[in-house]
Amino acid sequence: MASHRRPKQPSRAxxxxxxxxxxxxxxxxxxAANAAPSxxxxxxxxxxxxxKLYEDAEKATEQYDAAKEKQEQLQKEISTxxxxxxxxxxxLNKLRxxxxxxxxxxxxxxxxxxxxxxxxxxxxDDYLDKASTLDQLSSQQVEALKKIQEKQxxxxxxxxxxxxxxxxxxxxxxxxxKKKQEVQGKLAAAxxxxxxxxxxxxxxxxxxxxxASRASERSALSVGVxxxxxxxxxxxxxxxxxxxxxxxxxxxxxxxxxGLTSWAYAQAGVSIPRTSQEQANIGxxxxxxxxxxxxxxxxxxxxxxxxxxxxxxxxxxxAPRTGTVVRxxxxxxxxxxxxxxxRV
Length: 344
Prior knowledge:
This protein is an alpha+beta fold. It has helices spanning about 10-35, 45-110, 115-120, 125-135, 140-195, 200-220, 230-240, 255-265, 275-280; strands at about 285, 295-300, 305-310, 315-320, 325-330, 340-344. Strand 4 and strand 5 form a beta hairpin. Helix 2 (about 45-110) packs antiparallel against helix 5 (about 140-195) and helix 3 (about 115-120) packs antiparallel against helix 4 (about 125-135).
């Protein structure tokens, strides 16, 4: 006979848990259905972010250039010091050989060589003073010993200077590596953003660059003519139009902003510093655009991280940033305020 027992009813607690879970699942499903998919950034938003990354990269580039220049200068100074130390050591050895010859001569005659006592003395300076006073050394020996002591002190000072510069060089190399990594990081981030665009969006950005190039060509028709060495520097820079911007580059195949200006002036026979911040501190400052002349250096942004050559009519000739080439551009489109010009 089959059992007719009623099925066991779920407890009130179990019903509450199941009901709550079901409600949560329904709510989650509704929210998921209503949630809008995350919108991809627009071309303008990407361009704005990329431009900011390029600006940051240019700041780091100028710092990289400064560290690189310091490294090269330190290497030259260290090389000079090391040569001086080597020559000084050779001179010291010859002086010591001379004292040795004197000692040998005195030994053969049976006399006691005071110079040997000098080297055995715990205080050579004090011994030398006493020996001179007591007339225990010949004037020739005294002079030779003084030269040895002077050369020893000079060598010790030069060795310490070389050691300090080597430490400074190591720190500069570390800073150089840090800045290089920072520049590369900014450029990689910018490229990642650009890669996130569709082919159509990338084509639109490319069209913007082509319009900028055409605008640069039109500007060439209205630029002024320079005179003197500034004019010669400007003429040299004009021959580089179309060369790509590459951070740390000083030509002749590529340039960064201060690399172009320093190269251009070098062609005019004028040596100017490597970085924009250093270039800002030479010559006469000009704060009004109306007072600028063709070939004057022009500086932008409050930290002076960008420089170009004034081209007349509110135009500059410069190496703008990564992804661009040496070109003319209106000062109003640089992206940062004009700070001042410098007449070299």
